[in-house]
Amino acid sequence: MKIIEYEDKYLEDVRDLLVELEEYIVSIDKDCLDQVGEDYREKMALIDLEEVNKNNGKCYIAVEDDKAVGLIMGCIFPYDDKDYLDYKCPKRGEITELIVSFKARGKGLGKGLMNEMEKYFKSLGCEYILIDVFAYNVNAIYFYEKEGFHSRMYKEIKKIN
User: What is each CA distance from 94 to 14, 118, 132, 141, 146, in whole angstroms?
Assistant: First the structure.
């Protein structure tokens, strides 16, 4: 098992990983709002990789037997003028995707991918790492808390119809 920077030859594996994650999210979504749209597999990986390229980011993949079985994507998004009105705006990296295939879990890949991205963010002077996590994904929340993350904001939802 090795962790490397993304290479185009792994695009189909990345697509598979993104679909695996989204299908899992759909299966645990108590609000039934998530979906795997018709073009999801074809487009989402390209959208995510373009976001990484435009925002000083990186994509690392965990490779086993020449197949990507995990990935992490992270970006350094700029602040806007409004942010500075009420926030100190320390430099921060944001993890936009972290996926380890169900078949490859329990081998420390998630931790290894997180460590690689943290090194990258530190090398660019980031002071913090942000990550959004789906509230119903209790396994991910537990993992991130073990990695030293904590909640700073909550987004609440209420169905009104």
Answer: 19, 10, 9, 16, 18
Number of separate domains in the chain = 1
Does the predicted TM-score (pTM) go above 0.90? yes
Provide the residue range defining the domain that includes 15: 2-146
* Residue 63: CB atoms within 10 Å: 18
CATH code of the domain containing 17: 3.40.630.30
Distance CA 119, CA 56 (A): 14
Question: Distance between CA atoms of 137 and 120, rounded to whole angstroms?
Answer: 26
Backbone angles phi, psi at 80, to 5 degrees: -115, 175
- pLDDT at residue 122, as a whole number: 98
CA distances (Å), origin 135, targets 38, 89, 139, 151, 161: 25, 25, 10, 11, 22
